[in-house]
Every structure is written in structure tokens, then in C-alpha cells.
Design brief:
By secondary structure, the protein is mainly alpha-helical. The chain is built from 16 helices and no strands. Helix 1 packs parallel to helix 3, helix 2 runs antiparallel to helix 3 and helix 4 runs antiparallel to helix 5. It starts with a helix and ends with a helix.
């Protein structure tokens, strides 16, 4: 009953949001203020709308990702964090319909907001059900579904929230309409892909080595397979086949061709003759040559030319540093660190991918025209975009650090067989005590071995980090 009383406010909040969503959507604004052909009225953005933007960025951009990591760790602060985020998100959602300033035409941000809030409601319902810890009878089967659903929705939330925040910026500025839609989608999708790739590289580098070893494949196998798939998509979507070749169709299509050609080569080179995983230079080279191609991409505005040039140079640097990392820093190994950290040079390729993503997303035709009309130089604009990259890079590393330092419980004393197990919420436990005790014994025995008794290539990476990813 105590758990029920504690969860009642969250449940009531979710039900209230669900029942009132239709009413809020119907509230609307005076669309007659919008002149024909315009995306919004001429009214300024009022304080309520600014508060809406701030609250949603805090909730979906900071609190929910942090709560997701705490949920993976089964940390006791997971529920309070998510409750705070939910309250802020709901308040921000209503404020988005209550502002009295600028009126916007129908846009994808407003439509997608309802789906995002529906995901939030589903996540809250799953969380409330799991909090009751009902495991007997039919509820045992439902619980398994709820556990999987709660995990999937929770991990998808940061990605969906990122998309919604991009939609919000696009809607506020009136971008990506009519003839600008195609190039706008290309910039935002590809830019987000670069940032996502940087996030994945950071995860694998710091906490994913055990998972990678368990797959029996090198990281370049997965990178090359994705590059090949993306190249196939670009080859057949960058030009309207059957129609005339216009603009940069040829360059975009040939870029797709080299991606799938290089990707297939990377997949082939990712295994040794005995079938064991092997690293290679292909993904880094693809990034490098893509940056070179984009740096020479013809543009209409001088400002746009400079931004695309710096974007290309940044991407080239990411590819080159990736090749140097694999070939000379790691020397074809997955890691050179036994404590789960990384060499300082290894942080360079991921960060440059973050920066490349923001530079590409910030280089659409409409953005370049807006910045050019405002008299802002390319130097100032690029520094701002690099600042955004540093902030996202910082926050990603903070979340990974939060996971890494809390995912490995202390090893209980070897002679204390009655040592309590470190329990997790929802009935799950962390790495088993027996496994931890065995690792401790092996560590002690290793200190007693002479240098001649050590194997030729000892590795403690799996022992040190395995509990972090399980």
C-alpha cells in the first residue's frame, strides 16, 4: 500500500495528461494571424513559449537521459529522477499550448509532440506496474513484457527527444518547407548520423569492449556493414532515376557508390585467415574521403562555402585520426587500457564526429541565408557550432562515467560466504558474487606468479569491465 500511495500522484498525472491531450490540442490559436504563404504570425515569441522550450530541453535533453542510465544500473534514484522529469515535461507540454505570442502554422513539431507524450505515458505506466513487483500467475508473464517494453521505450526516448528538439528548432524558424525540404532532410539526417556515430564510438571505447569481444567481431565489421548499407540507400535515393541529372546529383550518387564499395571491402578485411576479428582502415578512410568531397561541394553563398569547407576539414580530420588511432595508437588491438579508460588520442575521432554533425546540420540553405543576412561571420558561427559539440560531448562522457563508476559493485570478502548479495530493483541482481570472488582469486594468484609463469599476452580487460556491461 505504501508503494501504491507513492505512485498515485504519477499515475494521476499520466491519466490527466492522457484525458486532456485532445482538449489541449483543440484549444489552438487564432490561425487568421498568419499571412498566406508564411509559417507563423509576426508576433514575437513570448515568455511562456520560452519557458516551454527551456523546460522541455531540461526534461528530455538532460533529466530523462540521466534517468535512463540510472535505470540501466537499477539505481534507487532512477524513479525519483524520472518522476521529476515527467512533471517538468508535462508542465512544458501544457505551456506549449498556452502561450499568447507567435502563432505557428501546422507543423511536424506540434504533431510529433503528441506521440512523444504518448511514449512518456506508456513508460510511466510500465514503471508503475513494475514497481508493484507482482510476479505470480498471469502477472508474471505480463511483467516480462513490461520489463522489455520499459527498457525499449526508455532507451528510445533520448533518440526520439532529439528528433523532436530538431523539429522544434525547424518549426520556430520556419525552415524545411517546400523546395527546401529535400536538402534540409539530408543535412539533419546526415548530421545526426555523424553525432550518433560519435556517441557509439565513445560508448564502445569506454564501456563496450567486453560486449565487442563477446561478439567475436571487430568494430570495423559493424562500421563497414553500416557504411555499405547507407551507401546503397544513397546510391538510389540521391537522384530521381529516369529524370535529368541536376545540381549535385552526380556527386551525391557517386558518394553513395564509394560508400557501399568501401563498406564491402571493410567487411572482408575485418577477419583474419583463421576467422578471428581484425581491425582495418576502411571506416576511417571513408570518413576522410567524404570530408574531402564535402569540402569541395559548390555553394551559392560565400558563407555557406566556408562553413562547408570547415565541415569537410573537420570530417577529414576525424577520418585521419581514426586511421592513426587504429594503426599506430592501438596497433590493431581493441584497447590499450586494462582499467576501462582510453588513451587521450582516442577521444579525438569521436569529438570531431560530434563537431562534424553540428556543422553539417547548421549548413542548410535557409540557415546560411539567415546568418548571412544577419551579418554574422563564418568564424563566429563555426565557433558556436563547435561549442554545441563540446557540450554534447561533455554530457555523453558524463553519462558514461555515471554508468561506469556505478555498474561494478565491490567484491565481497572471499572467506565471507554469508555476505549479502547486492540486489537490484525489480528482482534483478548485478554480476554474481561467485563470479566476483573468482575474479578476486585470480587476481591474487596472479600476484604470486613469477614473470616466467605469466602467459605471453595477459589481458585483464574482460575481468575488470565485464560487470559493467552485463
Amino acid at each position: 500500500m505504501n508503494g501504491f500511495r507513492n505512485l498515485t500522484p504519477s499515475l494521476a498525472l499520466s491519466i490527466c495528461l492522457f484525458l486532456s491531450a485532445r482538449g489541449v490540442h483543440a484549444h489552438g490559436h487564432d490561425m487568421s494571424k498568419i499571412q498566406e504563404g508564411e509559417f507563423a504570425s509576426e508576433d514575437p515569441i513570448d515568455a511562456i513559449l520560452w519557458v516551454h522550450i527551456l523546460l522541455q530541453m531540461v526534461a528530455f535533453g538532460i533529466i530523462f537521459p540521466t534517468g535512463m542510465v540510472l535505470g540501466v544500473l537499477r539505481n534507487r534514484w532512477h524513479v525519483p529522477t524520472q518522476v521529476v522529469g515527467t512533471v517538468i515535461a508535462v508542465v512544458g507540454y501544457f505551456l506549449g499550448h498556452m502561450h499568447k505570442g507567435r502563432v505557428f502554422a501546422k507543423n511536424v513539431h506540434a504533431s510529433f509532440a503528441n506521440w512523444l507524450m504518448l511514449m512518456l505515458i506508456v513508460q510511466v505506466v510500465f514503471g508503475i506496474y513494475l514497481k508493484f513487483h507482482i510476479t505470480k500467475g498471469f502477472h508474471g508473464k505480463i511483467r516480462k513484457v513490461a520489463v522489455v517494453g520499459h527498457g525499449i521505450v526508455g532507451k528510445a526516448m533520448p533518440v526520439v527527444a532529439w528528433v523532436q528538439m530538431l523539429f522544434g528548432g525547424i518549426a520556430a524558424l520556419g525552415f524545411c518547407r517546400e523546395d527546401h525540404l529535400g536538402q534540409c532532410l539530408a543535412h539533419f539526417i546526415m548530421g545526426s548520423a555523424f553525432i550518433g556515430y560519435g556517441v557509439i564510438l565513445t560508448l564502445i571505447m569506454l564501456v563496450g569492449q567486453v560486449w565487442l569481444k563477446r561478439t567475436g567481431r571487430s568494430q570495423e565489421f559493424f562500421d563497414s556493414a553500416l557504411i555499405a548499407a547507407w551507401g546503397c540507400v544513397n546510391t538510389f535515393t540521391e537522384h530521381s532515376w529516369g529524370g535529368p541529372w541536376v545540381g549535385n546529383d552526380i556527386q551525391h550518387t557517386t558518394m553513395g557508390v564509394i560508400w557501399w564499395c568501401a563498406g564491402l571491402a571493410g567487411v572482408w578485411l575485418s577477419r583474419r585467415r583463421d576467422g578471428s576479428p581484425k581491425r582495418n582502415f576502411i571506416p576511417g578512410f571513408v570518413i576522410l574521403i567524404t570530408g574531402w568531397a564535402m569540402s569541395a561541394h559548390p555553394q551559392h553563398l560565400p558563407l555557406s562555402t566556408m562553413v562547408h569547407t570547415i565541415f569537410g576539414y573537420t570530417l577529414m580530420a576525424a577520418g585521419l585520426s581514426r586511421i592513426i588511432e587504429v594503426a599506430f595508437v592501438l596497433r590493431d588491438q581493441n584497447t590499450i587500457s586494462a582499467d576501462g579508460d582510453a588513451n587521450s588520442f582516442q577521444y579525438i575521432p569521436p569529438f570531431l564526429l560530434y563537431a562534424s554533425g553540428f556543422l553539417f546540420m547548421g549548413a542548410t540553405e535557409e540557415q546560411m541565408q539567415l546568418i548571412s543576412d544577419a551579418g554574422i561571420t563564418h568564424v563566429s558561427y563555426i565557433l558556436v557550432l563547435y561549442s554545441f559539440a563540446f557540450l554534447v560531448f561533455l554530457f555523453t562522457n558524463m553519462l558514461i562515467h555515471l554508468y561506469a563508476v556505478n555498474s561494478v559493485p565491490p567484491v565481497p570478502p572471499k572467506d565471507d560466504e554469508q555476505a549479502p548479495r547486492l540486489s537490484r530493483m525489480n528482482g534483478h541482481t548485478r554480476a554474481t558474487d561467485s563470479r566476483q570472488i573468482r575474479d578476486a582469486e585470480e587476481f591474487e594468484l596472479e600476484g604470486l606468479m613469477s614473470d616466467d609463469e605469466h602467459p605471453e599476452s595477459p589481458s585483464t580487460l574482460g575481468k575488470n569491465n565485464e560487470a559493467r556491461v552485463e
